[in-house]
Fold these 3 entries.
Entry 1:
Amino acid sequence: MDKTIFPKDFLWGAASSAAQIEGAWNEDGRSPSIWDIAPKKKIRNGEDCHIASDHYHHFREDVKMMKELGLKSYRFSISWSRVMPEEGKVNEKGISFYSDLVDELIKADIEPLVTIYHWDMPLWVYEKGGWMSEKIIPLFKEYTKIVVDRLSDRVSWWMTINEPACFIMNGYMQGEHAPFKRNYLALSKLTRNCMLAHGEALKAIRKYAKKTPKVGIAFSSGAFIPKTEDPDEIEKARRMSVESDNGLMSNRWWMDPIILGKPVKAYGIYASHEKDMIEICQPLDFMGLNIYTSFNYSSWGKGSQVPSPGIAKNSLGWVIDERVMYWNLRFIYERYGLPIMITENGVSLNDSVSLDDKVHDPQRTDFIYRYLGQLKKAMNEGIPVIGYQHWSIMDNFEWAEGYDPRFGLVYVDFDSGRRIIKDSAWEYKKIIETNGAGL
């Protein structure tokens, strides 16, 4: 007997972000974000996100494809620059785009899952200090209220911020993402402002939402995979995954304050005051985990391993080991006890159109079955996973890597805007139709 325990309302879906797919960077009153003005030399091949996947002009077609694929949900983010092109100004055309998108999704019986912030800070906010300044906290709250006022009569699912660890580390520490800064001395300030902005946004969602909201935050996450199933090895992997002080990119750095209200101190750089915890630790309905690869091979992780020759990797060089899905879910749930949504999981490949005018991507199909098999294993052990959002719905602008990495279930010809549903998407549709019974 199949022991699958995916609930009937499991949120099978796919994800995207505004900056990566929308395009229309200067249309209908939108002002630039920090990614729109990125220096050409900072993006592979000198590319930019000005057109991206042109979702702004194709959103109805894109939702039709989502329905064709049987998606039950769609996670997308709001462009702050499109909604508020300057301080104190609401752009009606901008917010109407998202209202129309939500309407299309609902007509297609697809649950909209809204992320308030996915890395694309408006230039005008950055010029006021961005994450370096406490000014961003009330600005972010105001922006959140505007979005909630307009969409919450139809939207129930909300995420405040996507992967704070990544946009602070890559944008302010390593200088590899917008705004391309390198300032490790500002780590405490950046972390604190980001966490407080999350807390204020969450309170605003609960206060102003017209439908009872379900609120979370999407963390970048990973885990150490134990070398064996020996209890000592499992305990060692658990401690390294959720207890060790690995700094900004660790699970504990963000999750302990936001979920448990516990200040974290790592390397003596950041120690949040207890008074901050009152505002930072707001009740969450779920936690989102973006899971790709294990910590075993991370450059910053303790006990890093050298990948074996020939080990499976994606086109960005990330090691593919599906066991991270199970161990990540297990270790995180044991520590934090919240329902979990997989808010991102996917694989970048060098996809291309074949002679038969189709896109054959067997490695992605294999990836999906492998990772979802491990998700099923976790659920069968009682871990409450409420949804899975594949990254991504379509090929897109992959930040500083430009357009070469293709993560999508749908192939995008970036010159013509043409969409082609990949083989893996049809396989994912079968999984959805059977509610995971064949995993």
Entry 2:
Amino acid sequence: MTGTLDKIRIRDLVVRAIVGVNPDERANRQDVLINLTLYLDTRRAGQSDKIAGTVNYRTVTRRVIQHVEASNYYLVEALASNIARIILAEFPVERVRVSVEKPGALRAARSVGVEIEREREGAGERG
């Protein structure tokens, strides 16, 4: 594939999860805020106006929610990494950016989190 990839953004997805290292974080679910950017070529969908030419963001969202609600991580880094792994394995995207934040985790900050970007293996070799 040549050229720039298009982006599908899923913003401010709030999911309840067990994530953290402190005893209260291990015992009680807390809100995590997830943002996703899916990089892919959407030209076929733009021309055909058919969902088959793109990624169904509702399906992606359901899968992420399913994983996060069933998960039990110590670190947001691990949660973000596994969300990226699932998206790349199960959906036709070339690259994904995932941010996971824990609102209220620090008293002096609105939120704390991590943002990662992962690419499908061999994606950079296409062209």
Entry 3:
Amino acid sequence: MTLRPEQNEDLHESVKRRERISQIAEREGERTIGQNLALMGSVGWLVVLPAVAGIFLGRWLDAKFSSGVFWTGACILLGVSFGVWLGWKRIKEENK
């Protein structure tokens, strides 16, 4: 079985990428378990806190305008979206 040229290029790029990652790990040292746990915790809080803030804001708006749960649902969605964006940025910073 032979590889098509585009498969060969993909494989070559994958091997080069993995080698770069290995070189960085050797040069800078791998992250400890504690560092990984701290990153997971901070990303978790970055997602949860805006979602909870969205709940409180939505409940307040629903009470003010007597609109059922419309604002609560909308604010939860906005809070979670914002939190995921913040978490994504935090992970991107860590990978630099």
